[in-house]
């Protein structure tokens, strides 16, 4: 064998020296990390959770109903009530600012409430599903409805809280506008979940626990969850922590998660036993055989839009324990989002907050907005002119809507405008070159479209009472605005009015929705003066819809 192809020969001394270098390097790194421990312990101790500001707006027994401070100037009309599980603390949904479901919803303009159950006392041992659903959740929903002046609100349930939210929605469907379920156990028939196996009636009697302890100790539940993956929960994660001791943010995040995992709460004995027996062991909710408080929980009553948020790697509530439920509810509007995450990862992983929760926030918005004035007028325009009017409430700010006009030849106009009746009508009239009028009657809303060929009236039917009232108010506002001339605006004389009309600003409604720069250029005036005219025009038009 040529010399340059021979394998390298290492003498024992070389091997020993190399080993010593490796040992020395490892020891040095270990010594360095050891010096970091006091600082990282201090970092961990300073890690705060549940930082989003809120106020308690309702209390009953131990529970507190929280309302979170808005993070946007305007909020969407229909609020969201988060129903948390009875196990652990709800701040996993607000663990830290960049991993907070509460913040993601607030940032999207939603008005967010959350039920914090707190810990039951010995006096609460007999609390059942009837108490939690027909009393606590019902009273909290009523409180949110009253505060928001809504007949129905959105509900988002997590895990066991989702299962109880389903029961509530089946019993009181008229109070739920849209129902979101996150990692919610709903179907138990060999779905592969560890808890389903452990809770099988052949192996486990929940009454033996409640007869021993009364309320089920939080430490007992925490130990069970810990044993679902003992190596990962007791070895691997600490090895990862050691490897990343130099990362202050990682240590704080780790500490927050550990705080939540160890912050377990007891569960009322009766509701625990009833939940295990009726939901897990007998599968009565899915089979539509569940009764609570002597009343049948008929899941076919769930006729509102339904969203299921599932984790692909959830071994606590696998997707197979949730998805079949979509087939037994009464709604045809059922959506499922599966995300590559575990049970808790749905709430606190970076990816979920980047990809998943903005989509969930948008889903709630899309299923919360009543038809705008543009939608009602659009039905009439489509019938009269063959022009399609589409609105998208998820584009623009909270108080804006995107309106798109199109016909068989393609798009005619597209604009993001304020949810102001004068702005909407003005945009549609200008884009189509028509005059639009609205009137209400027993059959619905009459949309009058005046073109060069005459006036065509179309009646838009099947409009709910709330929408009818909203459109009536909007139509009245537009009519009042249209009764004024530009000269009626204080400060606008004949000369300024002539210049404005020549530039296409022909009415008070058009002036009210114009911008300062355009008005100033058209009238050959200062923007400050133009802004004053616009404010006065808006006063004549009346309050705008937000």
Automatic annotation (TrEMBL):
Signal peptide: none
Parts of the chain that traverse the membrane: none
Organism: Haloplanus rubicundus
Pfam families cross-referenced by the UniProt entry: Abhydrolase_1, HHH_5
AB hydrolase-1 domain ranges (all copies): 79-343
Matches recorded under InterPro entries: AB_hydrolase_1 (IPR000073), AB_hydrolase_fold (IPR029058), DNA_repair_Rad51/TF_NusA_a-hlx (IPR010995), PHA/PHB_synthase (IPR051321), PHA_synth_III_C (IPR010125)
Keyword annotations: Acyltransferase, PHB biosynthesis, Transferase
Recorded metabolic or biological pathway in which this protein acts: Biopolymer metabolism; poly-(R)-3-hydroxybutanoate biosynthesis
Stored SUPFAM superfamilies: alpha/beta-Hydrolases (SSF53474), Rad51 N-terminal domain-like (SSF47794)
GO biological process, one term: poly-hydroxybutyrate biosynthetic process
Annotated Gene3D superfamilies: 5' to 3' exonuclease, C-terminal subdomain (1.10.150.20), alpha/beta hydrolase (3.40.50.1820)
Record-level Gene Ontology MF annotations: acyltransferase activity; nucleotide binding
Name of the featured protein: Poly(3-hydroxyalkanoate) polymerase subunit PhaC
């Amino acid at each position: 064998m040529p010399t340059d192809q021979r394998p390298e020969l290492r003498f024992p001394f070389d091997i020993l020296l190399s080993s010593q270098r490796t040992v020395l390097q490892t020891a040095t790194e270990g010594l360095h990390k050891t010096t970091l421990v006091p600082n990282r312990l201090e970092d961990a101790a300073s890690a705060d959770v549940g930082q989003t500001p809120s106020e308690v707006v309702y209390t009953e027994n131990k529970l507190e109903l929280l309302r979170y401070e808005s993070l946007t100037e305007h909020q969407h009309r229909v609020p969201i009530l988060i129903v948390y599980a009875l196990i652990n603390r709800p701040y996993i949904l607000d663990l830290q600012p960049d991993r907070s479901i509460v913040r993601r919803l607030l940032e999207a303009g939603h008005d967010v409430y959350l039920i914090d159950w707190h810990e039951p006392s010995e006096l609460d041992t007999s609390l059942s599903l009837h108490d939690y659903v027909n009393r606590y959740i019902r009273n909290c929903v009523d409180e949110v409805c009253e505060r928001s002046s809504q007949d129905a609100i959105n509900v988002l349930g997590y895990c066991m809280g989702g299962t109880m939210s389903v029961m509530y929605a089946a019993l009181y469907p008229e109070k739920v506008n849209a129902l979101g379920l996150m990692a919610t156990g709903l179907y138990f028939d060999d779905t592969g979940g560890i808890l389903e196996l452990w809770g099988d009636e052949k192996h486990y009697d929940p009454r033996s626990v409640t007869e021993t302890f009364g309320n089920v100790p939080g430490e007992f539940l925490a130990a069970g969850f810990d044993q679902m993956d003992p190596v990962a929960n007791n070895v691997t994660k600490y090895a990862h922590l050691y490897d990343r001791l130099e990362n202050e943010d990682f240590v704080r995040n780790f500490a927050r998660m550990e705080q939540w995992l160890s912050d377990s709460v007891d569960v009322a004995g009766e509701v625990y036993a009833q939940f295990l027996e009726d939901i897990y062991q007998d599968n009565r909710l899915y089979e539509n055989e569940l009764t609570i408080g002597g009343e049948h929980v008929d899941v076919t009553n769930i006729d509102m839009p339904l969203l299921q948020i599932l984790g692909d790697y959830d071994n606590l509530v696998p997707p197979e324990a949730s998805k079949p439920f979509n087939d037994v509810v009464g709604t045809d509007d059922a959506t499922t989002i599966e995300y590559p995450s575990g049970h808790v990862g749905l709430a606190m992983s970076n990816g979920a907050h980047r990809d998943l929760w903005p989509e969930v926030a948008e889903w709630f918005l899309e299923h919360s907005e009543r038809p705008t004035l543009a939608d009602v007028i659009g039905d009439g325009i489509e019938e009269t002119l063959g022009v399609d009017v589409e609105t998208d409430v998820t584009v623009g700010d909270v108080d804006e809507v995107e309106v798109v006009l199109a016909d068989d030849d393609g798009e005619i106009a597209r604009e993001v405008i304020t949810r102001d009746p004068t702005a909407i009508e003005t945009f549609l009239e200008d884009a189509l070159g028509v005059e639009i009028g609205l009137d209400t009657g027993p059959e619905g809303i009459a949309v009058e479209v005046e073109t060069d060929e005459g006036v065509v009236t179309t009646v838009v039917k099947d409009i709910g009472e709330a929408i009818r009232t909203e459109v009536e108010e909007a139509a009245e506002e537009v009519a009042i605005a249209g009764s004024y001339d530009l000269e009626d605006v204080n400060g606008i004389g004949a000369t300024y009015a002539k210049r404005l009309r020549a530039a296409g600003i022909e009415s008070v409604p058009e002036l009210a929705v114009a911008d300062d720069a355009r008005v100033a250029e058209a009238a050959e005036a200062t923007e400050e003066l133009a802004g004053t005219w616009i404010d006065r025009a808006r006063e004549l038009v009346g309050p705008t819809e937000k």
